[in-house]
């Protein structure tokens, strides 16, 4: 690739110059200097580091372990319905995979650039039905597909740091980014957009497309009881979140669908 022909300092100057003059701002007014290929390269490195982090803790459920085969079959069945909805921008460009982290105390999920999704067992067990799971996963898929994660990382660390990670430099910083990715906070605009696209992604599927709203209703009730799910702390409420999701679902006329929870209950049971 072209970037391999330049020293990192020269590459950075080139990218910043080109980005300032030619990179279009998104609908939220944010400019992303990263290319889609950079998203994929950074995502691969961050995912590898994230895998190592949770593997060392004994919390990563390995796909290669036969004991986890059925859990991944069930989870992939949900994820693939969302991915194959025909609504993603980077369905074919990003590798898209999902991994399970064994921690029943954490009700959270997060995405790297380039479509690597991580979900904690605590979140899966917290949910009531498969539409809620599809809705939350759709929300995380949207953060990757709308490139929110890359934009948020660029805002937090700066483009020079991210480019150094893409170039395979600064391994200590890579470890920091991976360790903190689950606590990465998004803007209110990004949260609203991820909620909206969760509905859009679920619309062509069998799921009730307001599934994410069901999760937020339950999470907010728990927060009022004094226990705040980590997902809410890392995904700030943009205001009237449930109402906005339900309004989008009503607009698309895709709410109120019922699906069998047999597979979902099996997934919760075996985790």
From TrEMBL:
<keyword id="KW-0482">Metalloprotease</keyword>
<dbReference type="GO" id="GO:0008237">
    <property type="term" value="F:metallopeptidase activity"/>
</dbReference>
<protein>
    <submittedName>
        <fullName>M48 family metalloprotease</fullName>
    </submittedName>
</protein>
<keyword id="KW-0732">Signal</keyword>
<dbReference type="InterPro" id="IPR051156">
    <property type="entry name" value="Mito/Outer_Membr_Metalloprot"/>
</dbReference>
<feature type="signal peptide">
    <location>
        <begin position="1"/>
        <end position="24"/>
    </location>
</feature>
<dbReference type="Pfam" id="PF01435">
    <property type="entry name" value="Peptidase_M48"/>
</dbReference>
<keyword id="KW-0645">Protease</keyword>
<feature type="domain" description="Peptidase M48">
    <location>
        <begin position="77"/>
        <end position="247"/>
    </location>
</feature>
<keyword id="KW-0479">Metal-binding</keyword>
<keyword id="KW-0862">Zinc</keyword>
<dbReference type="InterPro" id="IPR001915">
    <property type="entry name" value="Peptidase_M48"/>
</dbReference>
<keyword id="KW-0378">Hydrolase</keyword>
<comment type="similarity">
    <text>Belongs to the peptidase M48 family.</text>
</comment>
